[in-house]
């Protein structure tokens, strides 16, 4: 291993060493990563030093960090034994959640979603999606368990991404017949009119994050075909007026930019056999000054209604670049 990770001076009595042995040398190579980059990432995040000797890994550092590192390495090795890859996101997830999960059973009507061994997994056509934080895990459980769920928190916490993943999973399993993704087009007025093209071409730039999420979970040709068949709809919030959305998985993204009237209109579209997810960030309201956010009003009015869940995320749940969490925390400190 590289000598770039230094353990800060500390009480020698608080330092410890652990030696882990891995029987399959091929899997151990995958665990370490190319040029031991996986081990380097673990070292940096946990403040330990890892040495590789044959089929053993020796961990040096403070007692608590060494124990945590053991859990992380064992969890990643078990992942490899199950035939799964180990990527940087998997390392981050294991560090955040390793050893903290318990087995969960969620039953909703005829649908049984088993999270074996506490591992919450969302199956899509292209990939298996796993929550990386406890808040994300609770959010996914509520998406399966409740007919209406709110995900509220800063950018980069996976609110929309996980909601779309669950929608695709339920669509593949036949639990719903359609996926409907909506966003408020805040500038939908004169400014949109100046853009070239028909209405779809005008609003597509606002919908692009939803297309991006879908393309992560479904093959491109299948996504295009389902959109053409209207089994997947991606549309501005205003297009929901007058409809009853039955047997559908419905997601409203950027809900903080919906007015109170728009939010009420959207929530009352819920039909039989449908699920509805509302995601938003209260710190990024783009509505004109003096216009109340529908997300704020919905949170205040609906919080105590059964079968409506509210999940909250903080900067600690950001799963984008580490700088994103630092930026969010800096702005929150300034506002405070």
Automatic annotation (TrEMBL):
Places the protein is found: Cytoplasm
Domain PhoH-like protein: start-end pairs: 129-332
Keyword Metal-binding: no
Primary location: cytoplasm
UniProt xrefs under InterPro entries: P-loop_NTPase (IPR027417), PhoH (IPR003714), PhoH2-like (IPR051451)
Keyword Amino-acid biosynthesis listed: no
Keywords tagged on the record: ATP-binding, Cytoplasm, Nucleotide-binding
Entry's family note: Belongs to the PhoH family.
Protein name: PhoH-like protein
Organism this protein belongs to: Thalassovita aquimarina
Lineage: Bacteria, Pseudomonadati, Pseudomonadota, Alphaproteobacteria, Rhodobacterales
